[in-house]
Amino acid sequence: MHSKDQICYEDYQQSADWLLSQTQHRPKVAIICGSGLGLLADALKCQDSFKYGDIPGFPQSTVHAIASSVQGHAGRLVFGELKGKTCVCMQGRFHMYEGHSLCKVTFPIRVFKLLGVETLIVTNAAGSLNDTYHCGDIMVIKDHINLPGLAGLNPLNGPNEEKFGPRFPPMSGVYDKHLRRMAFDICKSLGFAQFVQEGVYCMVGGPNFESIAEARLLHRLGVDAVGMSTAPEVLVAGHCGMRVFGLSLITNKVVKSYEDTESVNHESVLEVSKMRSETLQTLVTELVSRMDINNNTA
Ligand SMILES: O=P(O)(O)O[C@@H]1C[C@H](O)[C@@H](CO)O1
Ligand SMILES: Nc1nc2[nH]cnc2c(=O)[nH]1
């Protein structure tokens, strides 16, 4: 590594080579578990798991990541099979507000690319701005607004690594249309359709939740759900040509009225996540099982 924040190709390669030497699994799908949604990883069969701290070059989990994941299982990369398809799951992700640079936040994505991953599934907990949404709804992400990115905070800043992708990558259509349609079909067949939405996710820096004026601004901008993650990971995945699918679990309605006495807190976010964790697990499992991927195990 050159400097504290500069990461070079060899750093990603070192982590990927180490993982390839430690597991026989050769995943084509990577899944990032949002706050409280780490149970997804427990559904993997024939698991090999690695604490982030044990993987050479990997960023380290902070206290937040541990508190917001499944107790005792935070900060792990879990390899295994979902309905016979080989996957790798991040149980606990890295957030910008924890103090990580965006290169660190997105480090695992490029490692996944070098492992041979072709599809990234991202999940997160988010607050809703859309008045028709309810707590516990699942929003299939159609598009995102990357507010830190618009202000110049972008993991792709700096010299471009051509081995991963082009200097100026397009982001229109980054959330795969085919997978979105498939998710809706699955929800219909599983009887989930009444609480599944499709919308625009907005990333803000956090760690504070929105002021009322900020919430009103986001609402006017056409944001359906707001959270503190996902966009940087999706950017980096899109840059290196991965297929992306994203889900937001609506854990709260963002307060938009000065008359409203309710306020959100992280504990209630985790409570709702827990309530819908199993549904999300079922949806993601079914989606992975229907994906047209080569299932390679070495
Ligand atoms: O990792 P995600 O985006 O699910 O985490 C959400 C956003 C904040 O980290 C936290 C707020 O409750 O949950
Ligand atoms: N920024 C933001 N992140 C969240 N994560 C879960 N709920 C929320 C919310 O209301 N706002």
UniProtKB/TrEMBL annotation:
It comes from the Eukaryota. One of its GO terms (biological process) is purine ribonucleoside salvage. InterPro entries: Nucleoside_phosphorylase_d, Nucleoside_phosphorylase_sf, Pur_Nuc_Pase_Ino/Guo-sp, Purine_phosphorylase, Purine_phosphorylase-2_CS. Residues 28-288 form the Nucleoside phosphorylase domain. Its EC number is 2.4.2.1. Pathway: Purine metabolism; purine nucleoside salvage. GO terms for molecular function: purine-nucleoside phosphorylase activity. It catalyses: 2'-deoxyguanosine + phosphate = 2-deoxy-alpha-D-ribose 1-phosphate + guanine; 2'-deoxyinosine + phosphate = 2-deoxy-alpha-D-ribose 1-phosphate + hypoxanthine; guanosine + phosphate = alpha-D-ribose 1-phosphate + guanine; inosine + phosphate = alpha-D-ribose 1-phosphate + hypoxanthine. Keywords: Glycosyltransferase, Purine salvage, Transferase. PROSITE patterns: PNP_MTAP_2. A purine D-ribonucleoside binds at residues 210, 252. Phosphate binds at residues 35, 73, 93-95, 125, 229. Belongs to the PNP/MTAP phosphorylase family. Catalyzes the phosphorolytic breakdown of the N-glycosidic bond in the beta-(deoxy)ribonucleoside molecules, with the formation of the corresponding free purine bases and pentose-1-phosphate. Preferentially acts on 6-oxopurine nucleosides including inosine and guanosine. The purine nucleoside phosphorylases catalyze the phosphorolytic breakdown of the N-glycosidic bond in the beta-(deoxy)ribonucleoside molecules, with the formation of the corresponding free purine bases and pentose-1-phosphate. Homotrimer. This is Purine nucleoside phosphorylase. It comes from Coilia grayii. The lineage of its organism: Eukaryota, Metazoa, Chordata, Craniata, Vertebrata.
